[in-house]
Amino acid sequence: MENADGRTFAGRLIAWQREAGRHDLPWQRLRDPYPIWLSEIMLQQTQVAAVIPYFQRFVDRFPDIRSLAAAGEDEVLALWSGLGYYARARNLHRAAQQVVERHGGEFPRAFAHIADLPGIGRSTAGAIAVFAFGARHAILDGNVKRVLARCFGIAGYPGERRTAEQLWTCAEALLPLQDIEAYTQGLMDLGATLCVRRPRCEVCPMQQVCVARREGRTDELPASRPRKPVPERATVMLVLQRGSEVLLEKRPAPGIWGGLWSFPEAQSREQAEELSRLRFGAVAEQAGTLPDVRHGFTHFALTISPAVLRVTRLEPRASAPAHVWLTLDDAIGAAVPAPVRRILRSLRGRSETDLP
């Protein structure tokens, strides 16, 4: 799209990216699709600063697709623990296995084959194709939606189908014939550093042509998600101690924290005590209290009340669910959700305080 002064949106963006964009991210200047794919999955709904240490640990442990495909799910989830949105990690693992099984361990070049892998949508497939293979495809992540909505005055909530279609049409129309990598990186950089919630319009390369700036609409574009009350949920987690060990059980996948190790859940503290006996054969007694833990999800807020019980007698159970007994240090280092790790650390802190 050409502006009034004859310069294209893409041309402005490419020039700005080369001068002021980000050039030192650990997955940049590579043509290996593996780290590019990994970074794009980690960057879904997560900021760059949070991703970098996880990315570095991941590639140190799994330097290529085959090593990731051969790993156990527990190890993959343990390395991912704390980054959130754990379905991304499970899909990443499954996708690596599919690349080995269907493509001989070589990451596919065709856009359709990339988009067919678990956890990869249209925008992520476009970004991988651009950065790994120099292909000409559009992207439309959250930051890019904000840039395009403001620059071209596209109203409506981007999560609604009609608005999303408008944004995709715009994104496709803007693609340059050359310098696609610099252009795509520029979109990402602009949305992450300047065209943020409180935009830095005074240093933006699009300030002269941006509809939202010209019309004073930067606060209203893009439109926010229609507000709904955030539902509140509560659960009791059974924190069962046997000497220096605690019990964790594996959560089913799919679902919240699917595939991770967690404390068993109950509806009340009384039910937690009954649960310890019926499911795990543990006769237990109350062993003090720990503070409640609050954890926010995308669509609800969760309050976790730990029910701390100490095992006095353990009876064998033929049909107990998948569970393990781990020391506190081992449990903290396992593939556990962030709020469970917080409870474990509180428990360790209390245990250290109780030492003579």
Describe what you observe in this structure.
- By secondary structure, the chain is α+β, with helices and mostly antiparallel strands.
- It is 46% helix and 15% strand.
- The protein has 15 helices and eight strands.
- The chain has helices at 9-20, 33-42, 48-61, 65-70, 73-80, 87-103, 111-115, 122-133, 142-152, 161-174, 180-193, 211-215, 269-280, 328-332, 338-354, and strands at 232-242, 245-250, 261-262, 265-266, 282-289, 293-296, 301-314, 323-327.
- Strands 1, 2, 3, 4, 5, 6, 7 and 8 form an eight-stranded mixed beta sheet that branches.
- Strand 6 (293-296) and strand 7 (301-314) form a beta hairpin.
- Helix 1 crosses helix 11 (180-193).
- It is elongated.
Produce the secondary structure layout.
Elements (H helix, E strand, L loop, with lengths): L8 H12 L12 H10 L5 H14 L3 H6 L2 H8 L6 H17 L7 H5 L6 H12 L8 H11 L8 H14 L5 H14 L17 H5 L16 E11 L2 E6 L10 E2 L2 E2 L2 H12 L1 E8 L3 E4 L4 E14 L8 E5 H5 L5 H17 L2
Parallel strand pairs: 1-7
Antiparallel strand pairs: 1-2, 1-4, 2-3, 2-8, 5-7, 6-7
Look at the structure and give the mean pLDDT. Answer: 92
Percent range for helical residues? 40-55%
Unreliable sequence segments: none
CATH fold field value of the largest domain: Endonuclease III, domain 1
Helix/strand/pairing class, anyone? Answer: alpha+beta
Look at the structure and name the CATH superfamily of the largest domain. Answer: Hypothetical protein, domain 2
Order of helices and strands: HHHHHHHHHHHHEEEEHEEEEHH
Q: Please give the CATH architecture of the largest domain.
A: Orthogonal Bundle
Instruction: Output the radius of gyration.
Output: 24 Å
What is the assembly state of the chains in this entry?
A: single chain
Strand elements, count: 8
Amino- and carboxy-terminal Cα gap: 73 Å
CATH level 1 class label of the largest domain: Mainly Alpha
| Tally of helical segments | 15
How many domains? The number is 2
Please state the overall shape, judged from the principal axes of the Cα atoms. elongated
Beta-strand residue percentage? 5-15%
The main pleated sheet reads as:
8 strands, mixed
